[in-house]
Amino acid sequence: MRPSIFLCFLFLLCIPLVAQEKKADKKPEKQGKPGHFDAKAEELYYTLEPIDIPAGIVLESGGLEMLPDDSLAVSTRRGDIYRVENALGKDLTKVIFKPYITGLHEVLGLTFRDGALYATQRGEVTKLRDTNNDGRADVVKTLGDGWEIDGDYHEYAFGSKFDKDGNIWVTLCLTGSFNSKNKYRGWCVKITPDGRTIPTCSGVRSPGGVGANDKGDMFYTDNQGPWNGTCGLKHLKPNGFMGHPDSFRWFDKDLGEAPPQPKSGSRIIVEQSKVPQLVPTAVMFPYDKMGKSASGIVTDMTGGKFGPFAGQMFVGDQTHSTVMRVFLEQIDGQYQGVCFPFHAGIGSGTLSLEMAKDGTMFAGGTNRGWGSRGSKPFSLDRLRWTGKVPFEIHEMRAKPDGFELTFTQPVDKKTAEDPKSYDLLTYTYIYQSSYGSPEVDHTRPEITAIKASEDGRSVRLTINGLQLGHVHELHCDGLKNTEGQGLLHPDAFYTLNRIPK
Amino acid sequence: MLRWYSVVFLCLFCASSVLAAEPVKPAAPKPADHAIVSGFDRFFAAPESSAIEGGLLLLGELNCTSCHAAGKELEPVLSKKQAPYLGEISHRADPKFLAKFIASTHTVKPGSTMPSMLASLPPEEAAAKATVLAHYLASLGKQPFTRVAPELTAVTRGEALFHNAGCVACHAPRLERVAKASDDEENEAALLDLNAASIPLSRKLHEKYSLSGLTTFLQNPLVHRPSGRMPNLNLKPNEAADIAQYLLKDTVAPAPLTMKYYEGKWTKMPDFSKLTPKTTGPVSGFSIAGFQNRDNFAVVFDGFLRIEKAGEYVFFVASDDGAQLFIDNQLVTNNDGVHPEQESKGKVNLEPGLHAIRVAYFETGNDEVLKVTWQAKGMPRQPIPNAVLTSTDKPASDEDAWKTDPTLAKQGAELFVSLNCANCHHLGPKDKNPIGKPAKDISELGVAWGCMASEPETGHPYYQLSDAQMRSLAIALQTIKTKALPQRKPADDVHLRMATLNCYACHKRGDVGGVIRERDPYFTANSPDLGDEGRLPPQLTGVGDKLLPEAFTAILTKAAVARPYIDARMPQFGAANLGKLAEQITQHDLKETPLPKVPDDVKKLKNEGHKIIGKEGLTCISCHMFNRNRSLGIQAMDLTLVHERLRPEWFHKYMQNPSEFRPGTRMPQAFVNGKSTLSKVLDGNADRQIQALWQFLADGRKAKNPVGVIPTGMELVVGEEALIYRNFITGAGPRAIGVGYPEDVNLAFDANHQRLALVWQGKFIDGAKHWEGRGQGYQPPLGDHVVKLPDGPALAVLASPNEAWPKSADANTKDPNFRFHGYELDELRRPAFLYEMLGKQPVMIRDYPFGAGTFEDRRIVRTLTFTSPAAIDKLYFRIATGKLEAEADVHRVNGEITCTVKGGKPLTRGADKNGELLLPLTLEANKPLEIQIEYSWK
Hints:
The complex is a heterodimer.
Chain A: H1 2-26, H2 39-43, E1 46-50, E2 61-66, E3 72-76, E4 81-85, E5 96-101, E6 110-113, E7 116-120, E8 125-129, E9 139-144, E10 157-162, E11 168-172, E12 187-191, E13 197-202, E14 207-212, E15 218-222, E16 231-235, H3 268-272, E17 283-285, E18 294-299, E19 313-317, E20 322-331, E21 334-344, E22 350-355, E23 361-366, E24 378-385, E25 393-399, E26 402-407, H4 413-416, E27 423-429, E28 439-443, E29 446-452, E30 458-464, E31 470-475, E32 491-496
Antiparallel strand pairs in A: 1-24, 2-3, 3-4, 4-5, 6-7, 7-8, 8-9, 10-11, 11-12, 12-13, 14-15, 15-16, 16-17, 18-19, 19-20, 20-21, 21-32, 22-23, 23-24, 25-26, 26-30, 27-28, 27-31, 29-30, 31-32
Chain B: H1 4-19, H2 38-43, H3 51-61, H4 89-92, H5 95-103, H6 105-108, H7 123-138, H8 152-164, H9 194-197, H10 211-219, H11 237-247, E1 257-263, E2 279-283, E3 297-307, E4 311-320, E5 323-327, E6 330-335, E7 342-350, E8 353-363, E9 369-376, E10 379-383, E11 389-390, H12 406-418, H13 421-424, H14 467-481, H15 490-500, E12 508-509, E13 512-513, H16 543-546, H17 549-558, H18 575-578, H19 581-589, H20 602-613, H21 642-645, H22 648-656, H23 658-661, E14 671-672, E15 675-676, H24 686-697, E16 715-716, E17 723-729, E18 733-740, E19 745-750, E20 755-761, E21 765-766, H25 768-771, E22 784-788, E23 795-797, E24 818-825, E25 831-837, E26 843-853, E27 858-867, E28 872-882, E29 884-887, E30 890-893, E31 897-902, E32 907-909, E33 915-923, E34 929-936
Antiparallel strand pairs in B: 1-2, 1-3, 3-8, 3-11, 4-7, 4-9, 5-6, 5-8, 9-10, 12-13, 14-15, 16-21, 17-18, 18-19, 19-20, 20-22, 23-28, 24-25, 25-26, 26-27, 27-34, 28-33, 29-30, 30-31, 31-34, 32-33
Helix pairs in contact in B: 3-14, 3-15, 5-7, 7-12, 8-11, 10-11, 15-19, 20-24, 22-24
């Protein structure tokens, strides 16, 4: 009789759990609020200027690269590359578009080195040179093509800029964005200077951009879908697994054994303990709250020419036609960090980003096939700092018992230390093989102590109930600077995968 | 017995309409004086026409065989007109109307083919029995009968549809359009009075029908009237509703809303409780149409909204200037203030029942706009229909309301059987009603009494028949009795069936039928520049020789029409009612005319057909649409439909003399006496050119657009430089590199397998597939004379000349023995492809093709340079595969293309279609070897 008693006991235990879960199923909690972009207010600090695109040019920009002569190379989804001259000048009416080459295959990545422009096409990384100096490329040399395509439109290839060793990192979208039908779909491969293709990371799903941070470590954006509860920024840690296991089929004797299969319906942070290669998403972009389609990446390496955010990363969102700001830190060698709203109003759907040495950011847009808030079919915008420092959260760092916020301007101590100035919520997403995930596991941790620094440049929040693996959604609506101004963007979304000791 | 009461009624009817003619109303239409059977009246009423055929037609149309059994031999001839199903009649028809109609059928509906079963009774007794029957019919359905006030915009749309969609091919029009003068002025006959000669359709239809009932009926009449005499016009639900709104435009029902009109100057919504309205009154809908071009006024609409399903409802108000919407006195959405057209919305949860709705609107100056719409789960956004609005929440007065009396209904059920109503009327398709009194077999019928007596006789149905109808029936019955029916031919059956179904109202076949002069102005086209061919249904002479059987059936049963420009719809009569019409027509019409033999193979014919049809040929596409692309001129029938509709033999005959087959067609004659007006193609031979057209069109929608079609795509037009297109190209793999050359030749290189995959002439490629939307799929070449070159590797080391050529890798994976290195562009942007055969002794290949030759003799010249660090022999380059023919050093491949090789001596191996043209190469270390291959279509 023992087993049945045991079963009964189990059954009794299950009842309240099941009931609770059902309740949760019925009405998924909708909590928190979106990151607040305000193009008009943002204009005071960063001006967004559309660059007129001449009639006849369809500039669905997939790649941007500043060239040594200060012209901007723009590659398009139709496979053309233009050199845009005078794009850094004061007078945008002087901008000239010059065709560099036509007829390539959907170029989603450009980088320049030693007189040659390197384009990541759908099927290969190509070295382009203009040997007769007539302004147009005449040598179209295949550098590396160690992956396959089959006519599925979703098999995109996004190429990075050169890394410090001269490699180009190419993230390869899954076939139909769901499976790895052809070789190295769902991988990030490195194309070495001598043209070898080195599979580097598995688990990619549907990338939207790839780029390095200020330390030269490579990141990419992946999009909500199977095994991706929401869009996110992921660190392409060599030999790491980015989350989607369909890419495992290409592990062989050279690449070694595939990681263990993750369990669907779990949480990333739970699976990381069982799948050591799994690299948790460094920054999750909460779906709808921050965007719906994460895209291009650029890091501010201008040392202040773009304002107070030197070394930080900027990430586009195609659907929302925005640019987000990202601050990353490493805890025990693993990247994690926070995203903030930065600038809305890109003409079309933000896809490619680039920053010139003088601190001019360029954003290329397209909404063909995927709709965007920006209503133009394609666009090229530039964003420049006006010299006026916005009142913003500069950095947000995890601490063993809370967070530390730093600011671009001294805060008003009274509001900064008032708990009513803050609203903190946490949640995460289901790590599952089916498409996307709602926000789940909501908690409301308690802010037990707040201490502003003497100089007002930082605030320390002591928190009871930090949640591992959760987005910590913090709104600082009540916080003021010493002039009584509120934050330009009071919203921060920190992905807490590790808590420092 | 004299039908005195009907005469009185008629007089009264005429008198009242004359008296009511205030201020100006058209004279009351003249009613029909006998049972209207269109096919009989048009073709069999004249004394010289066949009385037997006319009688057979009437036996079916008057439903005689429902009571009188017909013998087996008559069955295929008689097409019985199954009476309407009555199971749901109470939803469609007002029981009060039914009582009147049953009591005095022919006065209430002059021209009806329904016989009266009560005509012999005194009026009071007839009325009493009819009322009992009405109670029975009212007790049958589930949905009650309700009246709804008409909506004016729908009425306007319905009026246009009613007069253009084909309703007035059988029914009398209500808008007068002037018939054009007769061609034969001398013998001009008086115009027919369509009111008296059309299938009856009461102008007081609102007395009978409910809006929802008539709408449902019009969407597919066959569900309710299986006879198909009222055919299905394939109306969309909104079209059926619009026509119903029009036919019921005089419905008297409580106004949906009341309106108060104010004048004054405001910048925000005023407090109406402090204002006095200038006018008030009932209105139909939230419309300010009556106040156009006014300034400084306000309107408040009040009414009640009938909600059936509890739930959340979203209300939208778009206005210029301010407007507000209230439900149950609560503000739901506020669009107040002076502004250009802008929209606001609000949500409210509503329980079933009536809810007060108010829309307040004001206007200061300039444009006036007010649009009120709503939306709920399962209900797309739409204007609020009058059906759910009422200006009063008081129930309708009890006196007028119909209440079904169960006792009377029960009596009615019995009467329905005993009066023989049940012999004709079933309640639904599965219902087999009991037969009432048994009647004589059709072959035993007399002709001067019973149903055919000149006065109604008790216990017999009374038809209102004309003298000609009486005469025909009598002769037919007499002939049946004496078994003297003449032998029938298919043509007789076809004619009888087409007359029965009134096909002739629209179609002419031989000299018979067609649109009559009086109805001609109601046949319209949505594209007037197509002339009569664009508005009149096609004539059917020889149609059985023209249409493929499947196409014929599809037209009759699936409304598969090829002439979308004709406003009149092709009705569907129901397969059961068509009998063997299509087969009989085909049997009669089909002529054995063999196609001429032509010397050209299909591929060549297709290529030439592509040329003939386009701008460089006969420019068929200057009038005809092609694959939904607009033509250059009038939008005549889409040519990609030709092959699925027409018999090839007919097409061949037709092309030689279109007006012989379609008198009056605007289609020009391009082929005269076996010669084409286009002399350059296929020797100007008409047979060959027509066959080329047929073969080209046989590809249907897959056929590529002829030159000159205004493409919906994005053609890449090659200019003075070569143009490159790297994408998924059909036949050249996912890493294809298409190149268009200024010399009007093109090629596609397969960068996965390092081979020249395709060459073609003419247009380069259409980028639309990859440049619109997300870009899924493979794009075939846009031009013509597409030649596929061998699959698999182009270069191999063979141990002996007999060794089999290595197999091809999968199209989606690279050939592991090769590596693609890219290309170099020359001064005309022509690529020289660079690739490598891997191995211990690698070979570098530079493959440099370009366009050459004259336009008539276009060529591709391909220069290949092979280099290896080591000496290699036994290396072979495979130029072509297939059926090979050689003439000196010119090798013809598959009859499509020739290859001429310089710098080497090719060898051929394999027989018939398995031929291979191989070029042996011997390489010295580090010494480039150059060869040249010239491809020509000559």
